[in-house]
Amino acid sequence: MMRSINKFICKIFFLLLVFCSANAESRILSIGSPDANITVKVFSSLTCPHCASFHNEIFSNLKTDYINKGLVKFEHHAFPLDLAALNAEIIVRCNVNNDKKFILLDKIYKKQNFWAVGSDINKINELIKKIGAEIDLSSDKMENCLKDEQVQDEILNQRIEAQKKYKIKSTPTIMINEKKYTGKIDYKEFKKVIEKNL
């Protein structure tokens, strides 16, 4: 009797672990086929100029050539280095639609010089919200998102977990099938590595 109860408890515990890990995975921003042979993970801070360069110079080409064709799955992992980057991540996640999250991510990176300036976080938040409004997010919705402590904790926990697992020392840190990419932020060079893994 006791043995069967223990087995039952073990099964429940295992199912909870699976559910929690799947839930954590689902909170990561990803685009592309889950069955793709290549997974590109980018750990980045939205206030980091090098992260913006990677996204603007490589991601859009990667999306056209590989992601849209089901060859690459792309994951954006939040690794905020400051409060402004954390708040920008929160606004990106304020959208329910995954495609719109990536549209907003594009805009946030392209307009980094517009909003990621100065040290007044209230002014920075207002500038981020102006970008969010471009994809129909209301000011009230974004304000509520910024006050959501659960979302803040999720993003910060993702950063802590990434730090532990990948020993991240700088942003962006780029992983291609769990191997760190150390080459130039240049699409031709990046494409060569992708082609080798296909």
Explain how this protein is built.
This protein has 198 residues and is of the alpha+beta class. It has a single domain (30-197), classed as Glutaredoxin (3-Layer(aba) Sandwich), CATH 3.40.30.10. It is built from nine helices and five strands; from the N terminus they run H-E-E-H-E-H-H-H-H-H-H-E-E-H. The protein has helices spanning 2-26, 49-67, 83-92, 98-110, 112-115, 121-133, 139-146, 149-166, 187-197; strands spanning 29-31, 38-44, 72-78, 173-176, 179-181. The chain has a five-stranded mixed beta sheet with strand order 1-3-2-4-5, with helices on both faces. Helix 2 links the parallel strand 2 and strand 3 (72-78). Helix 3 (83-92) packs parallel to helix 6 (121-133) and helix 3 packs across helix 8. The protein is globular, with a radius of gyration of 19 Å.
Short account of what is shown:
The protein is 61% helix and 12% strand.
Features:
alpha+beta, Glutaredoxin, disordered N terminus
CATH fold title: Glutaredoxin
- Radius of gyration over alpha carbons? 19 Å
Mean pLDDT: 89
Which structural class matches the secondary elements? alpha+beta
Across the major sheet, the strand order is: 1-3-2-4-5
Q: Segments where pLDDT lies below 50 for 5+ residues?
A: 2-26
What is the strand tally? 5
State the order of secondary-structure elements, H for helix, E for strand: HEEHEHHHHHHEEH
Strand content: 5-15%
Backbone shape: globular
Largest sheet: 5 strands, mixed
Number of helices, where a helix is a run of at least 4 consecutive DSSP H or I residues: 9
Annotated CATH architecture: 3-Layer(aba) Sandwich
Q: In terms of quaternary structure, what is this?
A: single chain
CATH homology superfamily: Glutaredoxin
Helix percentage range: 55-70%
* CATH class bucket: Alpha Beta
Number of domains: 1
> What is the straight-line distance between the termini?
52 Å
